[in-house]
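Deliverable D4.2, example record:
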Amino acid sequence: MSDQNQQSSSVQTQVEIFKDNWEMAKVALKLKIYFAEKGWVSVDIQKVEKGYYDQDLSWRMRRLGAPSEAYLCKSMIMENTGFKQEFESKYYQRFYCVIIQYVTKMNSDKLLKAARAIQNNNCEEKVGKSGYNLRLLNEEESNQMTGYGYNGVTPFLFNQKMPILISDKLGNLNPKFFFLGGGHADLKLRKLKLIKNISYQNLFIQKGVSFDEFINKHEYDVYPCDLSDTDKNWKHLQD
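Output generated by the structure prediction step:
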């Protein structure tokens, strides 16, 4: 088959995949164009079945080809209702995107301390406790901020740019990648890596988004946070 015919076949396949949901198709195309223009190499779009979130975590792990449940993550949008406008900077914002593993439980106190540490460690005028009160946005509010609906939040191309706090536990995984939502409840971010086996046949290995590429290439400010650390690491924070 010629390259032109292969390309035509690929386009036709994509049309078949998304023909029943053009909203999903628009999201997938927007992200694909973005990743191509920015030179991302570890990210691609995968469509999953409806009812994906009705299944348990073990099923989802197998469906995505993840090495373990620890590789599956979610993105949440938090608002700092204690935000003080006069201290606004790239290190101190009203809204934050938080990425954590499904197998862990977010500790609100440690998340707050991590957000404070980012500001206190980088700004001459330090914001104290009264300048922080993080709450999870509801579905409608999250949609307005990100442009993505329920179970579809992906930390790219938000309606409003914001810092990203990502669990540094993901950086300790081996291999060091993870899986994310893809802008729609039925889309996920992952990458198929093409390799050649000893008989020179093409094999595809499921991989997720590279942790290092996410940290180094993302256009938003990304902060790996040790959300499970002990309180002794936060003693320097401004009260």
